[in-house]
Design goal:
125 residues; alpha/beta; Hypothetical Protein Ychn, Chain: A; 5-stranded parallel beta sheet; globular
Length: 125
């Protein structure tokens, strides 16, 4: 693939769950903006952020001045964003893969490193 054909890519690492509505929403705000600009967007959920990958656990999360997290996540998925979830983090919280939103994929740290190395930019919330 030539440089002209290469798609830009952003990786956003999220570490906050519903305990911090603003920090849990901002990765999806930025991710949706990237997707709208034809930039590949990957959100990696770690720590308490993995709880938001559970189907239905984000429906009551609202941050002032931002769309509801449910809407942000649904838009992100619909626009083709990737959601990767830390496998040890979900195991620690007894979250099984069948509990995850349809597009969330459990990954180990090697995949996280690969995503970061392939990215043009990495953000952490």
């Amino acid at each position: 693939m030539s440089d002209e054909e290469k798609t830009e890519k952003i990786v956003i690492i999220a570490t906050h769950g519903n305990e911090d509505p603003e920090r849990s929403s901002l990765p999806y705000v930025v991710g949706n903006a990237a997707l709208a600009m034809d930039v590949e967007a990957v959100i990696i959920l770690q720590g308490t952020a993995v709880t938001l990958a559970k189907e239905g656990c984000y429906e009551h999360v609202f941050a002032a001045g931002l769309p509801p997290l449910k809407e942000l996540i649904e838009d992100f998925i619909e626009l083709g964003g990737k959601i990767l979830v830390c496998t040890p983090c979900i195991k620690e919280r007894q979250i099984t893969t069948d509990m995850l939103v349809k597009s969330a994929k459990p990954v180990a740290s090697g995949r996280v490193v690969t995503e970061i190395l392939e990215a043009d930019a990495v953000l952490n919330y």
